[in-house]
Amino acid sequence: QVQLQQWGAGLLKPSETLSLTCAVSGESFSDYYWNWIRLPPGKGLEWIAEINHSGSTNYNPSLESRGTVSIDTSKNQFSLKLSSVTAADTAVYYCARRGTNRFFDYWGQGTLVTVSS
Amino acid sequence: EIVLTQSPATLSLSPGERATLSCRASQSVSSYLAWYQQKPGQPPRLLIYDASNRATGTPARFSGSWSGTDFTVTISSLEPEDFAVYYCQQRSNWPITFGQGTRLEIK
Q1: Which of A2, A103, A105 to mutate to test the interface with B (most CBs of B within 10 A)?
Q2: Which of A17, A50, A66, B62 could bond A33 through an S-S bridge, CB–CB 3.0 to 4.6 Å?
Q3: How wide is the angle at C-alpha A117 spanned by C-alphas A86 and A69, nearest 5°?
């Protein structure tokens, strides 16, 4: 059974850097893309970025180059850093696997990140 | 960017009734569209992929269909556990995008 366990700081001040990590267990880390998705309060889901085991990445242009995803295959972990956060980055952040059907079939439990001065 | 417009924003029905949720894409996404169900405090759950294929564990009362850029998920007879928020998502073009969601609430 695939499990994604995520963690990271939940309260940030404007201009700080958001940092989240997701650990994958129960499945090969290869052959999939590993993603970050967020749910702002009162809004819909927003895809942020993805990375595969070889380090190939895709980003949502809406991040305006503030985001960086990285991977540590030795630990079966991947991470998200989002710089210069503002209140608009307040959201529940999820890590997720894009499976063989190329949709998001396994998700982390979510981390609420609040940006407030 | 492909915009997915879901309707209605809120749907109020009773258990046992039939629910029809819609998602319209701003341009062709072929059949590369999925539906997710999200309950409070939980991550989304994949229900339907490639427009009409049920994901593992999705009950048979859920079905997906499409015509052109219009996609529909139908719940044939609502169970109490079906009341949640539903999102559509396309993977045809970058960036991956989601609809804004339909809230299915108990009438």
Answers
A1: A103
A2: A50
A3: 35
